[in-house]
Amino acid sequence: MIHQSSSINLIDALPCLVCSVGRNLYILHCTGDSSTSNKVLVLGRMASSGQQFPPQKQASQPGKEHVMNPIPQATNHEYKPANNLPGKVALVTGGDSGIGRAVCHCYALEGATVAFTYVKGQEDKDAKDTLQMIKQAKTQDAKDPMAIPADLGFDENCKRVVDQVVKAYGRIDILVNNAAEQYKASSVEEIGEERLERVFRTNIFSYFFMVRHALKHMKEGTSCIICSTSVNAYKGHPTLIEYTSTKGAIVGFVRSLALNLASKGIRVNGVAPGPIWTPLIPSSFDEDECAKFGSETPMERAGQPHEVAPSYVFLACPALSSYITGQVIHPNGGMIVNA
Q: Which of 201, 252, 291, 331 is 20 to 30 A off residue 40, Cα-Cα?
């Protein structure tokens, strides 16, 4: 049963302990050091009104994936790559963890050469793990992946990232704007100017900056841009006020940029995930909120990153989505059914 249902790579796993919590099955992956063992949720797609994550809290944004419990699922054994992105060069911002990691992994499986960004000093371990994951997944013809540290809230850093990718690979075929931060606030009075600017710089300014510098290196007619927005852009969120505002701005950015670039044959689309188990969650919410995260969806559970990543593959592949631009896909467990 474990082999058939598992969504993680157990090939290199050492002896494991299997245990159940409610309706969820866990594998305790033993690394040889009991202090660094982590539980990995392997039946995350089962709807369960009793699902709860272990209480946990991280002190800083954007969070660390390798200390989460359970570790988010970036891979899925049921995913069957079909060589959808052979020879493509993809740049994914915030690709070290969460949805970004899952997207990088899928792109590598589909034949793309992958580069991604991360926050130096905070996400180094996650970036190293993702880099290794991509190397193992990449096809023979793809070039080695690249992890680039950068604070993308500033134009000069975005230019440096683009220049580094182009120097290594010659061009950019797929740009995925995905980096994000989010902070809770019980009222708008709590949101200071410095924090407001920081969230907007990371979540929307960087999208403008990356596109502006990448466009000159994107081939007309075959390239695409994909932006990560959120279900919160459509339904709102009472305590993620500035984050939700940026996600709404991203929807407008996608629609307007799609119209602007249509004549050049560069497609622009978005993905609006629902509640997905990523490092943003324990670094944003308190322990009780983490424990019941995602239970409010019609599917009564949070989603996993690997359940979102195929949307990015679909939008990146011309053979699958050549007539789609200015649209947003909604992998959200049924929270939005008519957007």
A: 331
How much is the pTM? 0.86
Active site residue 107: no
Q: 């622009």: which residue's tokens?
A: 268
- Within 10 A of 129 (CB to CB), how many other CB atoms are there? 18
Which of the following is catalytic: 169, 207, 234, 243?
Answer: 243
Q: What residues contact 277, with CB distance under 8 A and at least 6 apart?
A: 41, 44, 53, 68, 70, 72, 73, 293, 294, 302, 303, 304, 305
- Structure tokens, 201: 């710089």
Q: What is the mean pLDDT of the chain?
A: 87
Write the pLDDT tens digit of every residue in 216-227: 999 999 999 999
Q: Which residues contact 189 (CB under 8 A, 6 or more apart)?
A: none
Q: What is the pLDDT at residue 51?
A: 53
How far does CA 251 lie from the centroid of its chain? Answer: 17
Instruction: Answer yes or no: are the C-beta atoms of 151 and 198 closer than 8 Å.
Output: no
Q: Are strands 38-41 and 24-29 parallel, antiparallel or unpaired?
A: antiparallel
The two structure tokens encoding residue 131: 């880099």
CB contact at 8 A, 20 and 36 = no
